[in-house]
Every structure is written in C-alpha cells, then in structure tokens.
Amino acid sequence: MKRLFANLAMASVFSFCAIVAVAQDTVSLVPSQVEGIAADSPESGAAGLLQTMEERFVEGNVFFMSLICLILLAGLILSIERVIFLNLSNVNAKKLLSRLEDALEKGDIEGARNICSNTRGPVAAVCYQGLSRIDESPDVVEHTANIYAKIQINRLKKGCSWIALLFKIALMLGFIGMVGGLVVALDAVQESGEATLMIMAGGIKMALITLASGLVVYLLLKILYSFIQAKIENLSNQVKDAFITLFDMIMKYNLKYKK
Question: CA 138 to CA 258: how far, in whole Å?
Fold first, then answer.
C-alpha cells in the first residue's frame, strides 16, 4: 500500500514538472513561430486538445496555473489514498456479526476473537476490543468499545481536513488570479491611454482562465471530498450498529455461561 502511494506521488510530481516545462517552452515561442508550427503541422484530436491546454496554461499565468495544478495533484493523491483505505476498511458487517454470534452461542470466545483479528476494518477492530473485555463488567466493555470506536472513526477521517483545505485554496487562487488579470488589463489601458478591447484582452483572458481553472479544481476536489465523507459516515454507522449488536451478544453470553 505504501509503495503504491509513493509511486502515485512520484508520477504526479513528474507530471507536474512536465507541464511546467512545456509551458515554459511555449512561452519562449514568439507568435510567428507558433503560427508557423500550427500551419506546417496541423494537429487534431488529443494532440490538438493538449496544445490548446498548454496555450491556456500560459495565457492564465504560469505561476498561478502551476500552483493550481500542484493543488490538484496533491488533492487527487490524498483523495485516492482515502478512497482506497475506506474501500479496504469496508467489510460485510452482517456476515461478521453472524459468525461472532455463532461462536458466542457455542461459548467459543477465542474463536470469536480470532474471527475479528483475521478480519480487516474498524468494525472488526471494535468488536475485538469488546470481546477482549468480555470477562469484565458491562460498563467496562461499553466504555472500552466506545473509546476504540472513536479512535477508529478518527482514523477514517485522517487527511480529509487537508483535502478540504486544498479545494478552498484552489478557489481562492482562482479569485486572486482573476484580480491579477484585471490589474494587468488596467495597466495596459493606463500605458496606452486607450480603453480598447484589444488592449484589455490579454489581462481579461488571464483573469477568466485562472478563475475557471480554480473553480474546476475546487469542484472536482469538493465532489471527491463529499464522496469520501459519505463513505466515512457509512462506515461510522456500521461501527456504531455493530457495537450495539455485539453488546447484546455479550449480555446473552454472560447470562448463558456466567450464572
């Protein structure tokens, strides 16, 4: 798992560096060279789309667009890590509790613990902690399982605050880039002394491209964040329901085997 995340991070960094390098190369081309390339070798499909994205990247200001791309890559890495972790943490809680109930009805505490220890996820971990205190009073069992349930739920939420911070920063960068583009447009008007559309076009284009990029990254990471939160809520409810069911099983076990 750690190797997968490391490879993903390295690939993202290399992709980001490639984007910046291509953008810098595009900046170094004068307009006549760009037109000559377009005329001599017309591109279509994916190649044409890539060239358009490179041009928009440069027109939106390399600095701001680089920051937005970096935020997008970081947000995607964190989101993918959380989705994978949550998917691995998700188990069939009903099937697990059914197996535990069968083991407890037979009085096989050790077997029930082995079932929990061999099952991944927060539900099994909380059940294991409850079964580890089965010989103690019900209050101790409930208190221990409650504390461990909170620990497991906090583990599920790990990294989510960073995702929320990143999509908020992306939105703010979009607005800041928009303001910067408008300032560039006004500076051009001030220098020329004329408020024509041609003079203001560069600054306005920068403002709109930066704002649009920030909004796209914001929406993408926000959707991923909401999806992750929904999965966390579902797993949290599973943990709480499983604990209540397990507590009832333990009470029945105590009544049957500890008279």
Answer: 13
Extents of the domains making up the chain: 60-259
The residue with tokens 């209540």 is 244
Cα 79 from Cα 166, distance rounded (Å): 11
pTM score of the predicted model: 0.73
pLDDT tens track for 166-196? 999 999 998 988 888 888 778 877 777 776 7
> Structure tokens of 164?
């929320």
Is 259 buried (19+), middle (13-18) or exposed (0-12) by CB count in 10 A? exposed
63-to-70, 77, 81, 209 alpha-carbon distances in Å? 11, 21, 27, 13
Q: What confidence score (pLDDT) does residue 38 get?
A: 42
Who contacts 200 (Cβ-Cβ below 8 Å, separation ≥6)?
A: 185, 186, 188, 189
Q: Is the pLDDT of residue 251 over 80?
A: yes
Q: What's the token pair of residue 142? A: 């409930």
Nearest to 228 by CA among 171, 166, 169, 163: 163
Residue 110 phi/psi, 5-degree rounding, is: -65, -40
Q: What size, in residues, is the chain?
A: 259
